[in-house]
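Thread title: Can someone regenerate the structure for this chain?

I was given the following input by a collaborator and told the matching structure tokens would be attached. They weren't. Posting the sequence so someone can regenerate them.
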Amino acid sequence: MDRRSVLRGGLATAGGATFALLSGEPAGAAGAAGAAGAALLRGGRPRLTHGVQSGDVTAREAVVWARSNRPARMLVQVSRRPDFRHARTVRGPVLTPHTDLTGKTLLHGLPDGEELHYRVRLADLDRGLASEPLTGRFRTAPTGRRDVRFVWSGDLAGQGWGINPDLGGYRIFTAMGAVDPDFFLCSGDLVYSDGPLTETVKLPDGRTWRNIVTPEKSAVAQTLPEYRGQFRYNLLDANLRAFNAHVPMVYQWDDHETVNNWYPGEILDLPQYTEKRVDVLAQRARRAAFEYTPIRTSRTGRIYRRISYGPLLDVFVLDMRTYKSPNDANNSPTQKNALLGAEQSAWLKRELRRSNATWKVMAADLPIGLIVPDGTAAQEGVAQGDDGAPLGREREIADLLSYARRHGVRNMVWLTADVHYTAAHYYDPSKAAFGDFDPFWEFVSGPLNAGAFGPNKLENTFGAQLKFAQPAPQANTSPADGYQFFGDVEIDAHTENLTVHLRDLNGKSLYSQTLTPHP
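Best answer:
Regenerated them for you:
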């Protein structure tokens, strides 16, 4: 590579615990791996256990993730060539039990707009013996005009539907990889820490769904090791590991990484939990998420951030959990109900004004116009169903949309998952109870592998118009019947048009919409 400041630096995530499975095999293979694992712990070469991942890739930087079966040094080679000729080697962190043997290496000084190949090895701390390598690739963001393509979705292993070997596991990742995206925007609920699995589930038509089950997936997660086990479970799937190696991730969280519909300060009233304080559970869940995803670790530990992907695209990754107000009726005309909070809202307004990208993608873990109830009297999301002037959390969104209009922030597109069906909504100020904003689109996709639901009711405060929806025929329809979805976004470098495809489990396009940018 022809840059002097090519690559440097390694960082490890925070956290620590031991690991039950020594490889990427399902739980049933743990016994067969036991003797080999004991031998590895006594000596020999370390081993990469859960594949490799990259994430938060920009024009000059990328994060590479790995996990070891025992303490070892992470080494990353990177090259323009798949045969790794003229590769540069980056000395990464030591992977220790403090981080559950996970670690990340931050690569600097990368060439922009190129496909790069990376190879991860682990070096034994005593004798220097190296593990067998695992390889991956990513494309850095362009600094000039180039077509951009990415996929998004969320909700994995929810409602009792885990890795089913009879159906080939998480097959949707094969379809997502087939479109060869530049990156994957994970819209949250990458794990279901509150969703235990059973080995079999009887389906309505008499068929049997079969799950791979690990000890951590047999009950709700409460301890740090149990939260870590949620991420390790999903990485048992070969489809996901192959996808991770070839498609970088931009990760955001939602509720199920911790517990359903949670908010700060909540005290649970659920018999399956002995730890009732949600703040304690959320701290453990956040730590596990930072350890097991290739999110760039910052000193503040915050999840919200802007990912710039060339002159055509900025992705604003929002955090609608950390600063969330309690779930109530959400109908106060004065109370400061929040999803973003004051600090994140100020950051978002500032960064939107600074953005020179043609398209501003708002990566939201909750939809704007869909009513998402929490029980019978409380609301989980933005809307509450009155169809009138902004109330509760709607006031925060109204303030943001009005700000964007006043300051000439154009071409905002909202992407989300959360509701377990796919849909397209057009927000029309001429038909809204509150109209001080520029019209925009919101696209919904998911789940990746979870129960399918819908449709949710749309509210008219922001003039939401339903353009397409593909709900499930009944609540908690299993992935065996399809109804699993992802979104596919293409930005044309010549026209600057942005096209959204809503795709099914096999990659078939169900609905497409092309948007022309405003100057």
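The longest helix spans residues 278-292.
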